[in-house]
TrEMBL record:
Pfam family, one: CoaE
Residues the record lists as binding ATP: G12, S13, G14, K15, T16, T17
Organism: Mannheimia pernigra
PANTHER family named among the record's database cross-references: BIFUNCTIONAL COENZYME A SYNTHASE-RELATED, DEPHOSPHO-COA KINASE-RELATED
Family label: Belongs to the CoaE family.
Protein's name according to its UniProt entry: Dephospho-CoA kinase
NCBIfam families in UniProt: dephospho-CoA kinase
Keyword Glycoprotein: no
Domain of life: Bacteria
Phylogenetic lineage: Bacteria, Pseudomonadati, Pseudomonadota, Gammaproteobacteria, Pasteurellales
Pathways involved: Cofactor biosynthesis; coenzyme A biosynthesis; CoA from (R)-pantothenate: step 5/5
Localization terms from the record: Cytoplasm
Amino acid sequence: MTYVVGLTGGIGSGKTTVSDLFAELGVEVIDADIVARHVVEKGTPLLAQIVEHFGEDILNAEKELDRAKLRQMVFNNDTEKNWLNDLLHPAIRETMVKKLQESTACYLIWVVPLLIENKLTEFCDRILVVDVSPEIQLERATKRDKSKVETIRKIMATQVSREERLSYADDLIENNLPIEQGFVLIKEQVNSLHQKYLTLANKKEKECQKLS
């Protein structure tokens, strides 16, 4: 069995920065957001159901899902949000679990924003949390996603509190510093954690030696 490190953090915390650094070290990364995009790609049954429910306006000029428009719609309507979650979450979960089971890596990074909220910690050997203050989180996410502050606040409200998320952490990366300065420290922490995870995973998978 592959050693699974669940990587989580609130919106705008810097999960992608961290997972990309692990990927540069040759570590397999399974990203829930990427899986979520794949299950609603053009031509998929799930996208057809979304179009049937919301109408053709939910598509962009290329006939692909307009994710920003969909996010705006569902976060202002709990009924629609619940409908969408009931449609997508089982498919996303099934795809991710299959990827975990099929992996032959010594260890992998499993990036899941709602790891705790969706009770997926049972699939992890270890949990790595990227932590950031709510103020910085709001600023970064608003700028990155070009979304309204109210929308980002609503997203943050659907996620567990900072305190609860930290209570699950086996390992922690703080990302409160300015991007340039913080990146150097994050890279150092990732390199250190990589060696740590290789050691922990060595009992499970001999393949670890190829990455060390």
